[in-house]
């Protein structure tokens, strides 16, 4: 049994070649929910959905977001209507008092759907409508995710990190903003001054997640700040990682990041944007998988390989390295 911690595109790219190394039926994926937002009244869970669409064999592998060949008629019409009405597309937050009203799972991250700033495909939207409707019927996010996983035919078990709201808030010279506003709405500007995981002090890991963390844990090459940070901000979650075997794949080659905003975010929270900084962020890691060209010296066992993840063959190679690292610390 093995549990992957997933956020962004790094760990999903690793999962794309994991089946021949880690049996899917014996694999659990715990996904970050700090990136979730409520958009136009619908709860969007990007990191859950990337794994859902990947294992459901419908993921857009060009963007690693949304459903391949999806139409976007509703999204286009929302933009057209806003233009015709002279409405600013935003990102448009709902009023402050609305941020903590309604379904609790969406607290601190409620956006208007006017000319929605995040591209949502039509089939993709159907998932969000279904998820939100089941939540409104009284189900937990864990239960709803299980239902959606069954609908997409997943063999792996997919879990949200918590049924409680944790929102990744980026603090900048222009004020605080949700991660999705900073990354999607503003293309990663202005500079990061700090990152807050709002709600983490009151959130808890579910029994299902804590059970999954009893197994061996693999952290793929995801962003350690906003992909893993919301999980680690939940005390019992991080404590569980100190009590199990953990292997992590660095998203860096020394001080060069493969993709995404990890370097800016790490620098913003006082971590060196490098493999060394990743190791500092993961003090519970028992071993690391690093790229062949990464000469970083760590105090734990290291297995090196080509950590490029351009296709399934690449991903299988890196999973084999993870398997080797696990055998060294098991």
UniProtKB/TrEMBL annotation:
Enzyme class: transferase
Keyword NAD: no
Cofactors named for this entry: Mg(2+)
Entry-linked Gene3D superfamilies: CofD-like domains
Enzyme Commission (EC) number: 2.7.8.28
Molecular function (Gene Ontology), one example: LPPG:FO 2-phospho-L-lactate transferase activity
Pfam families per UniProt: CofD
Pathway: Cofactor biosynthesis; coenzyme F420 biosynthesis
Residues bound to 7,8-didemethyl-8-hydroxy-5-deazariboflavin: 49
GO biological process: F420-0 metabolic process
Keywords of the record: Magnesium, Transferase
InterPro entries on file: CofD (IPR002882), CofD-like_dom_sf (IPR038136), FbiA/CofD (IPR010115)
Catalysed reaction, written as an equation: (2S)-lactyl-2-diphospho-5'-guanosine + 7,8-didemethyl-8-hydroxy-5-deazariboflavin = oxidized coenzyme F420-0 + GMP + H(+)
Source organism, top-level taxon: Archaea
NCBIfam families listed in its UniProt record: F420_cofD (TIGR01819)
Sequence similarity: Belongs to the CofD family.
Role summary: Catalyzes the transfer of the 2-phospholactate moiety from (2S)-lactyl-2-diphospho-5'-guanosine to 7,8-didemethyl-8-hydroxy-5-deazariboflavin (FO) with the formation of oxidized coenzyme F420-0 and GMP.
PANTHER family (UniProt xref): 2-PHOSPHO-L-LACTATE TRANSFERASE
Subunit (UniProt): Homodimer.
Record's protein name: 2-phospho-L-lactate transferase
Gene designation: cofD
């Amino acid at each position: 049994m093995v549990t992957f911690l997933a956020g962004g595109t790094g760990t999903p790219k690793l999962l794309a070649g994991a089946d021949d190394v880690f049996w899917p039926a014996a694999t659990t994926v715990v996904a970050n929910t700090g990136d979730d937002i409520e958009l136009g009244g619908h709860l969007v869970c990007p990191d859950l959905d990337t794994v859902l669409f990947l294992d459901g064999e419908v993921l857009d592998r060009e963007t690693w977001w949304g459903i391949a060949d999806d139409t976007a008629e509703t999204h286009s019409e929302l933009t057209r209507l806003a233009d015709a009405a002279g409405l600013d597309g935003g990102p448009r937050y709902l009023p402050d008092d609305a941020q903590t009203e309604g379904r609790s799972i969406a607290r601190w991250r409620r956006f208007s759907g006017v000319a929605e700033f995040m591209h949502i495909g039509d089939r993709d939207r159907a998932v969000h409508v279904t998820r939100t409707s089941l939540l409104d019927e009284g189900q937990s996010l864990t239960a709803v995710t299980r239902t959606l996983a069954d609908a997409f035919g997943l063999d792996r078990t997919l879990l949200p990190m918590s049924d409680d709201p944790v929102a990744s808030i980026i603090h900048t010279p222009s004020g605080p903003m949700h991660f999705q506003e900073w990354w999607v709405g503003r293309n990663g500007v202005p500079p990061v001054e700090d990152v807050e995981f709002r709600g983490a002090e009151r959130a808890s890991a579910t029994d299902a997640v804590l059970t999954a963390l009893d197994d061996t844990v693999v952290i793929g090459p995801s962003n350690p700040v906003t992909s893993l940070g919301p999980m680690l901000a939940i005390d019992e979650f991080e404590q569980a990682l100190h009590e199990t075997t953990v292997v992590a794949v660095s998203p860096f080659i020394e001080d060069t990041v493969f993709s995404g905003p990890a370097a800016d975010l790490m620098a913003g929270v006082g971590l060196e944007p490098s493999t060394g900084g990743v190791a500092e962020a993961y003090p519970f890691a028992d071993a690391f998988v690093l790229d062949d060209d990464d000469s970083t010296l760590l105090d734990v066992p290291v297995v090196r390989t080509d950590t490029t993840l351009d296709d399934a063959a690449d991903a299988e190679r890196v999973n084999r390295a993870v398997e080797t690292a696990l055998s060294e610390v098991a």
